[in-house]
Amino acid sequence: MRIGVAGIAGRMGRLVADEIVLAGATLSGGTSLEADTPPEGTTLFPTIARLAAVSDAVIDFTHVSTVHGHAAGLAGARTAWILGTTGLSALDQDAVEEAATAIAVIQAANFSPGVNLVLALARQLGAALPADAYDAEIVEMHHRQKVDAPSGTALALGRAVAAGRAVRFEDAAVIGRAGHTGPRPQGGIGFAALRGGQVVGDHTLIFAAGDEQITLTHRALDRRAFARGAVRAALWTAGKAPGRYTMMDVLGMETTA
């Protein structure tokens, strides 16, 4: 299988390129910003469309600003899209959904198998622990260079809890607190974001009741977990019909996105 890497000269792009080779697939090449130096021997393409033309799948951990262009280029070439970019707007997501009518798109806030198992548990806990008795709080910490908060994975955890409780995430989310906030709203899903050092990614989901507390934590020790999961997802797209899938589908835990 031929797999390309958008942003191949970046920190994640380099790891993904390594994992493609280790998986026995063909690294078809990549795209890169002019200022970045790609891995030695890599074939660089000037556009995503050119990369897509020689690839069966493209793994993309770039930037939200590239979503519309990548959606069009990959859909036009009928090349599967493994999308790990987070922070998408509603219009960005519309572009992803449109691409999924033509190609297989695997979209995930986090490609670590462990994180996705935690997401499944978060949904189950949300369904089992009533909101009027168990307060849900999510704490995440990442390296000082991370530019968005809360992280995409933290938001995915919150959405999993909301889905388990059959409520709209947008109605339940409490993102950040400052000043005199008043009492905690019943059913709220709270978020706290910490930044410092070179923490790869720590996420903790807390359900706090008056008489007990349940804590679910995932700690990423190496970004290769994300890269390896993304390559696994790319290989999974072989022969798949157009549609938007998730890492849960790749793990055999869901049949629809």
If helices are DSSP runs of H or I spanning 4 or more residues, what is the number of helices?
9
Q: Calculate Rg over CA atoms.
A: 19 Å
CATH class of the largest domain: Alpha Beta
Order of H and E elements: EHEHEHEHEHEHHEEEEHEH
- Average pLDDT, rounded to a whole number, is 94
CATH superfamily of the largest domain: NAD(P)-binding Rossmann-like Domain
Low-confidence stretches: none
Major sheet details:
6 strands, parallel
Q: What do these coordinates show?
A:
With 257 residues, this protein is of the alpha/beta class. It folds into two domains: 2-111 and 223-250, Rossmann fold (3-Layer(aba) Sandwich); 113-220, Dihydrodipicolinate Reductase, domain 2 (2-Layer Sandwich), CATH 3.30.360. It has nine helices and eleven strands. It has helices at residues 11-22, 48-53, 67-77, 90-99, 113-128, 152-164, 169-172, 224-236, 247-250; strands at 2-6, 26-30, 57-60, 80-83, 104-107, 135-142, 173-175, 189-195, 201-208, 213-220, 243-245. The strands form two sheets. Strands 2-1-3-4-5-11 form a six-stranded parallel β-sheet, with helices on both faces. A five-stranded mixed β-sheet has the order 7-8-6-9-10. Helix 1 (11-22) packs across helix 8 (224-236) and helix 5 runs parallel beside helix 6. The protein starts with a strand and ends in a 7-residue tail after the last helix.
Helix and strand topology:
Blueprint: E1 2-6, H1 11-22, E2 26-30, H2 48-53, E3 57-60, H3 67-77, E4 80-83, H4 90-99, E5 104-107, H5 113-128, E6 135-142, H6 152-164, H7 169-172, E7 173-175, E8 189-195, E9 201-208, E10 213-220, H8 224-236, E11 243-245, H9 247-250
Parallel strand pairs: 1-2, 1-3, 3-4, 4-5, 5-11, 6-8, 7-8
Antiparallel strand pairs: 6-9, 9-10
